[in-house]
Amino acid sequence: MSGHSKWHNIQRRKGRQDAIRGQLFTKLSKDIYHAAKEGGGNPDTNFRLKVAIERAKRENLPADSIARTIAKATGSLQGAHYEEVLYEGYGPGGVAILLDIVTDNRNRTAADIRHIFKKRGGNLGESGSVAWMFRRIGRITLKKDTLSLNVDELMLQALDAGADDLREDEDEWEIVTSPENFTSVRDHLEKQGLPLEDAEYTYEAVTPMEVDPSLTEEVLDLLESLEAHDDVQSVYTNAEL
């Protein structure tokens, strides 16, 4: 695995847990906001919102905060306006980094992210500078211990629904789809009663890049520092660490 999956597996967020609880709540709230803004405020018909709410509840984000965020996103309550943008840059050794940003102030966020890159041996790039090194995919995950199907049965269900691949992680299965087939595959698996852990659009590197071992800590430091910023929702890289 590479790109998003590799970073998703090795990042140290389990140990750090975003360090500051308020920072984590900010990220969760922005995820809920954008999901509701994009697909409406009903989690029964907006799967992305449903997943965002479930994730927030697992982290003990208060129910009134969730409701208030949805109300702001759907216009029934006044609040900040957020937009989702992609930032691109390079890290130590030339590794490519793609950032999913949700911000209410592009200028402030750009200045912050540029400073993080510069301070840690990288640089913020222009639009299109590294995005071509990644591909957009749908990613659906299922915990192994919640499944009654064996791997052959799961593979058959996924491929029949239009998935591209089934990948194994330590404690979960990852179903990969094209962006076009993501919704139909997700809906099919749900109708089959499969317990989906998560389902999202994401990015993965087209061609992974091996990092010189001497630069590993520098690259990790940059990735973690970017991820720690309030406006950064997701970090993707082509670095093989």
Automatic annotation (TrEMBL):
Domain TACO1/YebC-like N-terminal: 5-75
Pfam family, one: Transcrip_reg
Keywords: Cytoplasm, DNA-binding, Transcription, Transcription regulation
Gene Ontology MF terms in the entry: DNA binding
GO cellular component terms given for this protein: cytosol
Main localization, broad class: cytoplasm
TACO1/YebC-like second and third domain mapped to chain residues: 82-239
Coiled coil: none
Endpoints of the signal sequence: none
GO biological process: regulation of DNA-templated transcription
Subcellular location as annotated: Cytoplasm
Keyword Transcription: yes
Family affiliation: Belongs to the TACO1 family.
Protein name per UniProt: Probable transcriptional regulatory protein SAMN05443507_101201
